[in-house]
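Final report, section 2: Outcomes. Of the targets proposed, GDP-mannose pyrophosphatase is the one most frequently requested by collaborating groups, and we therefore present its record in full.
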Amino acid sequence: MGMDLKETRIDGEVAFDGRFLKVTRDRITLPDGAETFREFIRHPGAVVILPLFDDNSVLLERQFRYPLDKVFIEYPAGKIDQGEDHLACAKRELQEETGYTASNWDFLCTIHNAIAYSDEHLELYLARGLTAGPARLDDGEFLETFRATVPELLEMVSSGQITDVKTVIGTFWLEKIIAGNWAPGKTCPAPVTTAQSPS
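The predicted structure is given below as C-alpha cells.
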C-alpha cells in the first residue's frame, strides 16, 4: 500500500473574486502534519467539441488569446454555466461558435489541464452528423473556422503550430478513433465531478 499523500483543508478564504475566475487561498495540513497554504484558481469547467465530418476532416477555430498575445488553433470550446448539463453546453457552444449542429454525440473523457493551480476540468465530446447553420458569437468574441485533416493536425502538433493542450489531446483521440483503435462510448453519460470544499 502506498504512502498517504492526502492534503487536508483547515480553512480558507477567497483571495480574489473576479467576473470569470476566483482565486482561493486555503490553509492545509500536509501528509507529515506540517501546515502550509495552497492558492489556486477556481474554474467552472468547460466543454471541448471535436467536430468530425463524414470525410474525416475536422472543424477548427482560430482565436486570439490575450494572456499569450497570439492566435491559437483550437477546437470549439466554452465555459459550462452554473447547473448546466455538460452535453447541452457542448451542443450550445458548437452552434454559437461555428453555426454547426450535430446529430451524433459521444462523451470521450475528462481532462484536468492545470492541476497545479486550478480545479478546471474539460469535458471532451465527439460530434458527428454535422449540419451547417448561422453562428451566434457572444459580444466581444471573434474567431474564424476552418477545416483540416487529422494528419494535417498531427503535423501542426509535431511542428509546434498547435500548442493548446485540449487541441493536442483531442487530435490524439481523433487519430485513435479514425484508426479504429479507440471506440467512443455509444451514449453520453454525465461526467463525474468532484465536490468542492467551501471557501
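The CA atoms of residues 110 and 192 lie 9 Å apart.
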